Amino acid sequence: MLIALLGQATFLVLSGYCGCGQEALVIVFITAGMAISGLQYSGFVVNYLDIAPPFSGTIMGMGNTISCLAGIVSPMVTSALTPNGTQEEWQSVLWVTAGILGTGALVFALFASGEVQAWAKHKGGDAPEELPLKEAEMVLEKDTH
């Protein structure tokens, strides 16, 4: 997760410092940043299932809903920061983006866990899913007779 977010931030900032005539280098930096961002999926996407298996779909839905706000807010922030479209204005946009990515990496590094959370653990008797297969079959047979 750290490599993905900080790598993406680095390549985005580097792309902002390319000059005229360096379009190919900008494309390389942006492509590298987006490619390395794919590494984050092995971090946070599977983490939903790690921390709360029975609620992973609900938590992922809530997380995706919240993250969609970035798609709504970012065009407004970008247009406010780039009224003239100069390179310096775009550098500020890329630095803000890098700051957000860096903050996300820091928060994930400090607070993320792969342990099932206490609130997500099954409370009560043994559920058939938690019993060995043979015992679960016996429980099901008892229930059907």
TrEMBL record:
Q: Name one GO biological process term.
A: monoatomic anion transport
Q: Which SUPFAM superfamilies match?
A: MFS general substrate transporter
Look up the domain of life of the source.
Answer: Eukaryota
Topology of this chain in the membrane = Multi-pass membrane protein
The primary location reported for this protein is membrane
Keywords noted in UniProt: Membrane, Symport, Transmembrane, Transmembrane helix, Transport
| GO CC, alphabetical | membrane
- InterPro entries per UniProt: MFS_Na/Anion_cotransporter (IPR050382), MFS_trans_sf (IPR036259)
Identify this protein by name: Major facilitator superfamily (MFS) profile domain-containing protein
Taxonomically, what lineage is the organism? Eukaryota, Metazoa, Ecdysozoa, Nematoda, Chromadorea
